[in-house]
């Protein structure tokens, strides 16, 4: 297949593109600069110069491909509209990347016992209402002659294969630990996120392209940990003695920005990948997050 990937130089998109190329597919990828074009070309991706705001570029690339993977933004509705319009009536798959913060509970570092699978009803936080609305819009196109599918990862960890090879939460915690000489969480750090290794996430895109039905939505996880537990492991990995520290939400906002502090670092997002395992036969097998921190790529 010829597959058009947005975010082709990024953490998820670049990793997905590399996997698809290894499977024998031809991949074109959206990039914003000549430097990134050179970087993706060196990885076997044919660059398409443009941004998510370049409607004509997106439309042409989508129409020329057999499938589209949108891994550049979970929230850019304009690009989604253009890509879906280009695919309407074609029967081609459109794989969109969302994120499990759509079920996130803003809890200021406190634990929540709410756990969600694909059949669990939920009300998104105000910060994620637009993303959830966009997801509904995408899946509604199953009635318009294409095959929309949403992959919704939890906290992603591990080193990717894109030019940008890092995820979000764990690198932020490690960077702050090095800055302070001690791993530090927001509030009590008892908030829990489900998580998935990038090496387990990427094959799910290939499975979805191959056999996911139109309108399918998949949470992606293979375990869960509290932020405090991650910080304990980071201290152990960095050789810092003693327990991690807690900071106020005001301090967390100063370090990471208010949105990241509230919706990513101090929230709960506990999901179960029930449908991916049952429907697509997805079988994650990479290192668990704590092991990856203490013995894997973050130590290396």
Please tell me about this protein's structure.
With 300 residues, the chain is of the alpha/beta class. The chain has a domain at 2-165 and 195-224 and 272-285: Rossmann fold, CATH 3.40.50.720. It is 40% helix and 19% strand. The protein is built from twelve helices and 14 strands. It has a seven-stranded parallel sheet with strand order 3-2-1-4-5-7-11, with helices on both faces. A three-stranded mixed sheet has the order 8-10-12. Strands 6-14 form a two-stranded antiparallel sheet. Helix 1 crosses helix 7 (198-211). The longest helix has 14 residues, at 198-211. The radius of gyration is 19 Å and the shape is globular. The model has no long low-confidence stretch (mean pLDDT 96).
Spatial gap, N to C terminus: 36 Å
CATH topology of the domain at 2-165 and 195-224 and 272-285: Rossmann fold
Order of strands, widest sheet: 3-2-1-4-5-7-11
Mean pLDDT: 96
Q: Report helical residue fraction.
A: 40-55%
Unreliable parts: none
Q: What is the count of DSSP helices, taking H or I runs of 4+ residues?
A: 12
Gyration radius over CA = 19 Å
Could you give me the name of the CATH homologous superfamily of the domain at 2-165 and 195-224 and 272-285? NAD(P)-binding Rossmann-like Domain
CATH class of the domain at 2-165 and 195-224 and 272-285: Alpha Beta
What is the H/E string? EHEHEHEHEEHEEHEEHEEHEHHEHH
Main β-sheet description: 7 strands, parallel
The name of the CATH architecture of the domain at 2-165 and 195-224 and 272-285 is: 3-Layer(aba) Sandwich
Shape: globular
| Proportion in β-strands | 15-25%
Number of strands: 14
Helix-strand makeup class: alpha/beta
């Amino acid at each position: 297949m010829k597959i058009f990937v947005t975010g082709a130089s990024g953490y998820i998109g670049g990793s997905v593109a590399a996997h698809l190329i290894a499977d024998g597919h031809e991949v074109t990828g959206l990039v914003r600069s000549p430097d990134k074009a050179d970087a993706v070309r060196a990885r076997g991706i044919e660059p398409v110069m443009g941004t998510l705001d370049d409607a004509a570029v997106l439309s042409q690339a989508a129409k020329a491909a057999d499938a589209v993977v949108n891994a550049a933004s979970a929230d850019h509705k304009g690009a989604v509209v253009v890509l879906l319009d280009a695919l309407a009536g074609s029967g081609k798959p459109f794989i969109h990347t969302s994120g499990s913060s759509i079920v996130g509970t803003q809890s200021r570092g406190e634990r929540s016992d709410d756990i969600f699978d694909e059949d669990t009803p939920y009300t998104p936080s105000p910060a994620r209402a637009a993303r959830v609305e966009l997801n509904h819009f995408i899946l509604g196109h199953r009635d318009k002659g294409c095959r929309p599918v949403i992959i919704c990862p939890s906290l992603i960890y591990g080193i990717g294969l894109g030019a940008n090879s890092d995820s979000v939460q764990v690198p932020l915690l490690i960077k702050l630990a090095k800055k302070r000489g001690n791993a530090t969480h927001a509030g009590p750090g008892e908030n829990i996120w489900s998580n998935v290794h990038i090496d387990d996430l990427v094959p799910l895109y290939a499975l979805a392209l191959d056999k996911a039905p139109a309108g399918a939505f998949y949470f992606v996880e293979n375990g869960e940990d509290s932020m405090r537990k991650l910080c304990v492991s980071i201290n152990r990995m960095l050789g810092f003695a003693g327990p991690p520290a807690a900071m106020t939400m005001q301090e967390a906002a100063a370090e990471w920005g208010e949105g990241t502090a509230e919706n990513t670092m101090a929230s709960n997002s506990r999901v179960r990948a029930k449908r991916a395992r049952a429907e697509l036969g997805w079988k994650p097998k990479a290192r668990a997050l704590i092991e990856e921190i203490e013995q894997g790529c973050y130590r290396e």
